[in-house]
Amino acid sequence: MDARKALLVDAYRRFNGRDVDGLLSMMTDDVEWPDVPNQAVLRSKDAIRQYWLGEFAVTDPQMVPTEFVPGAAEDEIVAVVEQEVRDLSGAVLVDRREMRHRYSFRDGLVRRMVVEYVE
User: Fold this and answer.
1) What is the total count of domains within the chain?
2) Taken in order 99, 74, 13, 11, is the CA torsion positive or negative?
3) What is the torsion angle, in degrees rounded to the nearest 10, for the CA atoms of residue 73, residue 74, residue 75 and residue 79?
4) How far is the C-alpha of 118 from the C-alpha of 98, rounded, in Å?
5) Which tens digit of pLDDT belongs to each residue from 30-50?
6) Beta carbons of 43 and 73 less than 8 angstroms apart
7) Helix/strand/coil (H, E, C) string of 39-106?
8) 114-119 long-range CB contacts below 8 Å, 24 or more apart?
9) pTM (2 decimals)?
10) Distance between CA 85 and CA 59 in Å, rounded?
């Protein structure tokens, strides 16, 4: 779990720094990624790139992992994350909402991510 946890810590750092290409390099070519607003699953790095570029053009999301726990499957890790979203002028849109990101891996790369909200 240590190598996967280190990968995810780096991924959140890259996300908060808007390093899209660095993030995509941490994923398998057949990655599955949630498009939460549209309740869809993105199935390519190009689709994820466009999704993030669109998101970053109108909001400033910050994700801070607070804990990593083993998932139900052997290849899974769950990141407990605090999310804060601001608009580009700095106004808070979402204030420190806790959620869980469930990751699956293959060959040391992220294969799938699912968002689970904490009530």
Assistant:
1) 1
2) negative
3) 70
4) 6
5) 999 999 889 999 999 999 999
6) no
7) CEEECCHHHHHHHHHHHHHHEEEEEEEEEEEECCCCCEEEEEEEEEEEECCCCEEEEEEEEEEEEEEE
8) 114/34, 115/34, 115/36, 116/78, 118/80
9) 0.93
10) 7
What single-letter amino acid sits at 45? K
Binned at pLDDT 50, 70 and 90, residue 1 comes out as low
Domain that residue 25 falls in = 2-117
Q: How far apart are CA 20 and CA 3, in angstroms?
A: 21
**Phi/psi at 50 (5° precision):** -60, -40
Kindly report, residue by residue over 56-110, the tens digit of the pLDDT.
Answer: 999 999 999 999 999 988 889 999 999 999 999 999 998 878 999 999 999 999 9
Kindly report the CATH number assigned to the domain that includes residue 33: 3.10.450.50
